[in-house]
Specification:
- The protein is mainly β and 208 residues long.
- It is globular and about 40 Å long.
- The two termini are 17 Å apart.
- The chain has one domain: Metallo-beta-lactamase, Chain A (4-Layer Sandwich), CATH 3.60.15.10.
């Protein structure tokens, strides 16, 4: 599995010839739109910086509902959560997706999660290979809450997302407080060929 970050909360999961794209954004966000033809597009919620599937003209399977889904060898489990700490009263609902790739890796994408999920959901999400989690606050959990969630889930790799970069057109907190005092690695992409065990590794991806 090859994992690429396109900026904000948008990632592509590439397995062989198949591509899953998660939370595509529109032109207003500031990053360049991904130049790919995805087989599957997954959207955590219907805000413009996460739901721009209409920017892609090829045939694809669209997944934007909670529940169980399968397409092109990917298994997707969606858990309904909230975009804020007040049960969605400020910003609505959000879906946390637990994706199993055709080659057997689990990737949890938290979307615009705004609170610590219920213990039952955290248990179902536990011990994935990769956790993609927002850390920029303002519209999602902040860095300290993101760490609480990461510790509860215990992934092999933690990849922060949805934070301020020079390309982003609106204000969020930077990633600095999330990585402060912790070891991390910067990579252009994350390639997994075998399972990794032990202490979680923090990876900062460069946006493509």
């Amino acid at each position: 599995m090859l994992l690429k970050w396109h900026g904000h909360s948008c990632f592509s999961l590439i397995c062989g010839t198949r591509i899953m794209l998660i939370d595509p954004f529109d032109e207003g966000v500031g990053y360049s739109l991904p130049s790919i033809e995805p087989d599957i597009i997954v959207e955590s919620h219907q805000h413009h910086d996460h739901n721009a599937h209409d920017r892609f003209n090829n045939d694809y399977t669209l997944i934007r509902e909670p529940g169980n889904h399968e397409a092109f060898g990917f298994t997707v489990k969606g858990y309904e959560t909230f975009h804020d700490e007040l049960q969605g009263s400020k910003r609505g609902s959000n879906i946390v997706f637990d994706v199993t790739t055709p080659d057997g890796f689990r990737v949890v994408h938290c979307g615009d999660l705004g609170h610590v999920p219920a213990t039952e959901i955290l248990q179902k999400l536990s011990e994935p290979d990769v956790l993609l989690i927002p850390v920029g606050g303002v519209y999602t959990v902040d860095s300290s809450t993101a760490w609480k969630i990461a510790k509860a889930i215990e992934p092999s790799f933690i990849i922060p997302m949805h934070y301020k970069t020079p390309a982003l057109n609106f204000n969020l907190d930077a990633v600095d407080s999330f990585i402060s005092g912790r070891k991390f690695e910067r990579l252009e992409s994350l390639s997994l060929e075998s399972k990794s065990y032990g202490e979680a590794k923090i990876v900062l991806l460069e946006y493509a």
